[in-house]
Amino acid sequence: MKKLINGVETVLRESLDGFCAAHSDIVVLGEDHKFVRRRALKPGKVALVSGGGSGHEPLHVGFVGHGMLDAACPGQVFTSPTPDQMLAAAEAVDQGAGVLYVVKNYEGDVMNFEMAAEMASGTVATVVTNDDVAVEASSFSTGRRGVAGTLVVEKVVGAAAEAGADLASCQALGERVNARTRSMGIALTSCTVPAAGTPTFSLAEDEMEMGVGIHGEPGRRRVKLMPAREIADEMVAAILGDFGADASGEALLLVNGFGGTPTMELYLMYDNARKLIERRGIRITRSLVGNYVTSLEMAGCSLTVTLLDEEIARHWDAPVHTAALRWGM
Amino acid sequence: MKKLINGVETVLRESLDGFCAAHSDIVVLGEDHKFVRRRALKPGKVALVSGGGSGHEPLHVGFVGHGMLDAACPGQVFTSPTPDQMLAAAEAVDQGAGVLYVVKNYEGDVMNFEMAAEMASGTVATVVTNDDVAVEASSFSTGRRGVAGTLVVEKVVGAAAEAGADLASCQALGERVNARTRSMGIALTSCTVPAAGTPTFSLAEDEMEMGVGIHGEPGRRRVKLMPAREIADEMVAAILGDFGADASGEALLLVNGFGGTPTMELYLMYDNARKLIERRGIRITRSLVGNYVTSLEMAGCSLTVTLLDEEIARHWDAPVHTAALRWGM
């Protein structure tokens, strides 16, 4: 295992220390490294809290700040955070208008966030994201997995909460954005969890995984490496096919790198995917390309499409000031 | 070779098409893919033009926009752009106040930018960056290599130009920032140039390259993989030792990923490096952590330290609106 670490026990702690020191204008580290919270809380605002296993950075800690999350709970690598982390985070950021948990659909995360919600003294609502069209169930999830589309939910609902939306409205908006969002990923290489020390899976030099999950879980099938255009074509077909007749109008296209793919290739995939989507009569009017929901150093990428409407587009465009997403301020 | 491409001949073109489509609010693609220029040019402003081999994205095309570059010329992967690209870019963005070329110190780039400057009809000045303390000369350079510190020069001079500084002032400021900037890099794995098809170099499973260049060129020596703290210690010692007695006051710390290292590890390196630097009495008051000056999918990172003064800090903080760096607007 080749990693820039001092020991597998201290990876998460040292990484969080570095993150919070580098972005001390935006975030504060919670006690015992339980959570990262927004430095400037906004009285009366619905508080957005997310979290999950680490190794997907910048998700979620990189999305804490004005216009997005109020707190994020980092678990160990690819391991759910504990209910007491979520409870501590919620109590630290609750401003009297309730707390909305944004949870990716994995059994551990869903169960722990449910327990935290039951233990909470304040009002809590939850949105579970499940945007991955690759498989209907997986090793870690009942039902579809929540992947890069979670970023879109957090950005859009974060803007609505910042603008004063109440808890029920934020929850309904989050569910609506999730319902209008579809993703699919592919991997060219595996990733190595520090505590495991060996690659999660293996792929031959001429193979790729079509429909991979963000922990390296199996997707639809293992195939021979294909040209970018054919890969994009299969991903776009899966995503748009899943939308069915609803797919029209304007859309957001997110090309998300898994951590080990060069930026050049991500923009090349964007070029191929965008042309394929626009050929189906959907106009890409919002774009994001980069490493946002990663799987450590896995090579590969995912495509995410969100069908926009006026409200979703307006909240996407609204100012955001986090470590990983920043515009308008 | 495992890459998301359609063919080695079209990688650069398709990637640039995707980049310019994704950021069409900020940039315009020049004729024949010769350059990427800022969409909204500012009359009377000194024009900043940079460029170099591709494969280092987001450098330089990702830094085109308000407050940074006016144009960037992308060569083929790890290959200098041609003088006619630089000339075309300069002519497209010259607003009557002259053009400043920012050039990384590699023989091919320096020679081609010199030829372009000689062919220019307008006034041209040049700043050559050479911030890499690892080696005094390399396979591609006479004298020190220009690496991630180039980003700092482009940001600071870009802000000065935006604020109305004239050509001589921009050039002097660029040279001053370069003189106050030092970098060093390390690699855990190689990278693969698409046209070559095989890794540029090879490292055993327990080896790393100390002082690596951004094309995978050799550094100081090949050593056994060390803990992050020891790696950071050697890099910080090399950088601060090179500054000598001048190293005091406030500094900017950039931890730059080479493309294949997870964000978690970059923040862990930041944590280790920051503590080591502050122990020497230098205060880190500006920070940047991420993949900014990459070497395709190489695993590893570089540290860059810029000694700040009031002018440099002010220009660093000034608003910037590019694909890869954005704040204050």
UniProtKB/TrEMBL annotation, chains A, B:
<keyword id="KW-0808">Transferase</keyword>
<dbReference type="InterPro" id="IPR050861">
    <property type="entry name" value="Dihydroxyacetone_Kinase"/>
</dbReference>
<dbReference type="InterPro" id="IPR004006">
    <property type="entry name" value="DhaK_dom"/>
</dbReference>
<comment type="pathway">
    <text>Polyol metabolism; glycerol degradation.</text>
</comment>
<protein>
    <recommendedName>
        <fullName>phosphoenolpyruvate--glycerone phosphotransferase</fullName>
        <ecNumber>2.7.1.121</ecNumber>
    </recommendedName>
</protein>
<keyword id="KW-0418">Kinase</keyword>
<dbReference type="GO" id="GO:0005829">
    <property type="term" value="C:cytosol"/>
</dbReference>
<dbReference type="GO" id="GO:0004371">
    <property type="term" value="F:glycerone kinase activity"/>
</dbReference>
<feature type="domain" description="DhaK">
    <location>
        <begin position="7"/>
        <end position="327"/>
    </location>
</feature>
<dbReference type="InterPro" id="IPR012736">
    <property type="entry name" value="DhaK_1"/>
</dbReference>
<keyword id="KW-0319">Glycerol metabolism</keyword>
<dbReference type="GO" id="GO:0047324">
    <property type="term" value="F:phosphoenolpyruvate-glycerone phosphotransferase activity"/>
</dbReference>
<dbReference type="Pfam" id="PF02733">
    <property type="entry name" value="Dak1"/>
</dbReference>
<dbReference type="GO" id="GO:0019563">
    <property type="term" value="P:glycerol catabolic process"/>
</dbReference>
